[in-house]
Design a protein that fits this description.
CATH topology of the largest domain: Thrombin, subunit H
Largest sheet: 8 strands, mixed
Helix content: under 10%
Shape: globular
Strand content: 35-45%
Number of domains: 4
Distance between the termini: 45 Å
Radius of gyration: 27 Å
Length: 713
């Protein structure tokens, strides 16, 4: 293949066959509970162990962000200047009045769960906070927000837009929790017409906002905060001794059911309210992020662009501590209706773009005669995922439903369900009622008789929501875009995907799975590399795409099929994502004890320890090689470990400073005179900027190990 450079190339739809074999879900008449604790569910914590467990604070694993440290922390100006940052204080809450209101609301069906109070504010980069010029010519803005009665704080933005290169962080005043960096990737729309934003919870009553604009960034960012949500009700856990009623809920990880379906369900945060809901499949089987929930969860005063969703929010094991949460933000309303209480959303941030999120798209069934056994999966009171078993009674409700809030649901629009194991509560609203084969037949509207043997629940009927007067009041236009009218559809196992593949060097065989649209820019494909890129709608090749001679590059558009049985393309392959910088090599960090890096994070030097090191390379997260050295003339006679001494290697050696050449590019350094030792090397990293780096270690037996290195200043 010749060397190819495309200024602009757009790959459009063609056909690519798919296959999928679905595992059905069997329900027993009497579910069997684990007699002992089931195996630990490692989802959601593997990244913690791999990436940041050694950091002395908590990076909050939530929204789409770069998961890095704030500028002020890295440059030693965070804590010492804290008192100089302007403080905006929220007023004290009338907790007694709120408690009485909640007690009344919690007993009313058809209302979302309230956990917080919304303080209306108007805080921007121009009317609040403090600006300062940094030593490197950048501009730094910071603001403190304090809410005296809050267990948690999160923010809603009516306008949010960041230029390329700018970074926005939020962290607790004690610097133990941090969110960010948010970048231009989080923009929803153009600068003059963006759709707003919301940022995740920080579990504290005092937070710091930090915005950094590097030198050379000319465009001004927009950060306009309209609501500070003070969470006055903590997240409930089953271990709370003063809440014995929480024992009525059944932790999903105490049961061996719905292994796929549980990954469809998410906790939905609407300002100061919470509900549940689930991803649902469509007849194109194309992983479109359609999210089904309850109409009564819709709050018209809070734009859907400011809603966010917690994924894989479960305990680590049966009745254990809270799991790591991962979230996406923003949605657009597609359809909703009162009489069956359904609401269908299209998620703006596709959760499939985060490789840490395990996903499933529920199948559905338009049956009018469901089987008498099913389950519900939900998030009551913002709790981790719970399961409810339905038996003995699952019928059409022939009577009107008179909700305590004054609304009336007409006859024959809901399934009436008898709850046999577990219970549902506020916050469970919108959660799916699932039958065999993991197909949804309705979403939760409300219940009565909480935590009792006579508990009943009402689910809006999916089959009636299917049809309506227009696309905005029915499901079929969205879930059956080709009007095939199947009576049911199987679910679909999720596949992680990305929208932007930029600033990458590809060295080996690599497969990149795009979402609907894949943008490719500043990509270097080296000789003999085989690359496949896929997307659902289009692949756009932008400037600085280079494929060297003898490389092999294929582009595929994954199109729909009429068959309902499909498999995610490349679902079992290692893929590139923007969230995992290890993948610039096409591989993830190798879990091995053969080589160790310490200290990590490092400031001045780092030791790479292990026997048989033949070559070491250091890369930045864009795949640019900073250091490289091949071992020459290695002796086979090794000393004992006590006699071996690591050799110090300086980053300044051999041809240029890693600080750059003034053009933003790092030179490739040759470390002349370096002699590997049997037990490792010590590298001086004091001249490297703070950030995340990758150390690639070659052993004499041809093993390749990649380790992550964090450098702090």
């Amino acid at each position: 293949m010749k060397n190819i450079t495309h200024d602009s190339l757009r790959v459009t739809r063609n056909t690519l066959p798919l296959r999928h074999v679905l595992n059905g879900l069997k329900f027993l008449n009497h579910p069997v509970r684990f007699a002992s604790t089931p195996p630990m569910n490692w989802r959601g914590i593997s990244f913690l162990l791999f990436a940041f467990c050694f950091l002395p604070f908590s990076l909050v694993y939530g929204q789409l962000s770069t998961s890095e440290l704030p500028y002020s922390w890295l440059h030693g100006i965070g804590e010492k200047d804290l008192n100089l940052i302007p403080l905006v204080s929220m007023h004290n809450l009338d907790l007694e009045t709120l408690k009485k209101e909640d007690a009344a609301n919690d007993n009313m069906g058809g209302m979302p769960y309230r956990f917080g109070y919304s303080h209306k504010v108007s805080l921007t980069l121009t009317n609040s906070g403090i600006w300062e010029t940094t030593s490197d010519g950048g501009r730094l803005w910071r603001l403190r927000i304090f809410s005296p009665d809050a267990f948690s704080i999160h923010l809603l933005y009516d306008s949010f837009w960041l230029p390329d290169g700018a970074k926005f962080f939020l962290y607790s005043e004690d610097m133990k929790q941090c969110i960010g960096a948010f970048t231009s990737r989080n923009n929803k729309g153009e600068r003059a017409n963006n759709s707003g934003f919301a940022t995740e919870f920080l579990f504290t009553n005092s937070i710091v906002l930090e915005y950094f604009k590097p030198q050379g960034v000319s465009e001004e960012g927009i950060i306009s905060i309209t609501s500070v949500i003070s969470g006055y009700r903590p997240i409930a856990t089953k271990q709370e001794p003063d809440n014995p009623e929480l024992g009525c809920f059944e932790d999903i990880n105490c049961w061996e059911y719905a292994k796929n379906a549980r990954d469809a369900v998410a906790l939905m945060i609407i300002g100061q309210y919470s509900c549940s809901g689930a991803l649902v499949n469509n007849t194109n089987n194309d992983y479109t992020p359609y999210f089904l929930s309850a109409n009564h969860c819709f709050v018209d005063t809070i734009p859907t662009a400011q809603w966010f969703f917690w994924w894989n929010y479960e305990t680590l094991e049966c009745n254990d501590t809270l799991a790591t949460r991962i979230s996406t933000s923003g949605a657009e309303l597609l359809a909703k209706r009162d009489n069956t209480d359904f609401m269908l959303l299209h998620l703006i941030e596709d959760p499939a773009e985060n490789e840490l999120i395990q996903l499933y798209y529920l199948g559905w069934d338009r049956t009018t005669t469901p089987t008498p056994v099913g389950i519900g999966i939900h998030h009551p009171r913002r709790m981790p995922k719970m399961i409810t078993f339905v038996e003995y009674l699952l019928i059409n409700n022939p009577d009107p439903i008179y909700w305590a809030g004054g609304t009336i649901s007409p006859p024959n629009h809901h399934w009436l369900v008898s709850v046999d194991y577990g219970s549902v509560y506020k916050g469970s609203s919108g959660s799916p009622l699932i039958l065999q084969a993991e197909r949804i037949i309705g979403q939760l509207h409300g219940s009565g008789g909480f935590c009792s043997a006579s508990e009943l629940a009402y689910y809006g009927r999916f089959d009636i929501s299917w049809d309506g007067t227009s696309a905005s009041t029915r499901l079929r236009d969205w879930l059956d875009p080709n009007d095939d009218s199947p009576p049911y559809l199987d679910g679909l196992k999720g596949v992680n995907c990305i929208s932007n593949f930029t600033n990458k060097n590809i060295l080996w065989a690599t497969k990149i799975v795009g979402c609907s649209h894949l943008n490719v820019q500043n990509v270097n494909i080296f000789t003999n590399s085989k690359v496949e890129m896929t997307a659902r709608e289009s692949i756009s090749i932008k400037p600085n795409f280079h494929a060297q001679a003898s490389s092999n590059v294929h582009f595929h558009i994954v199109s729909k099929e009429s068959s309902s049985k499909k498999t995610p393309y490349l679902s079992n392959e290692a893929v590139f994502t923007n969230n995992n910088p290890m993948n610039i090599f096409g591989i993830k960090e190798v879990s091995t004890d053969a080589f160790q890096l310490f200290p990590n994070p490092a400031t001045n030097t780092v030791t790479i320890e292990g026997e048989g090191i033949a070559q070491v390379e250091v890369y930045d997260v864009y795949g640019r090689k900073l250091l490289e050295q091949k071992a020459e003339g290695r002796t086979q006679n090794r000393r004992t470990k006590r006699e071996q001494r690591p050799l110090v290697v300086s980053a300044e050696q051999g041809g240029g400073s890693p600080k750059g050449n003034g053009d933003g590019k790092f030179p490739s350094n040759s470390l002349e005179g370096w002699q590997p030792q049997a037990d490792g090397v010590v590298i001086t990293v004091s001249s490297l900027p703070a950030g995340v780096y990758l150390v690639k270690i070659y052993s004499e037996n041809n093993q390749v190990v990649v380790k992550k290195l964090v450098i702090t200043k």
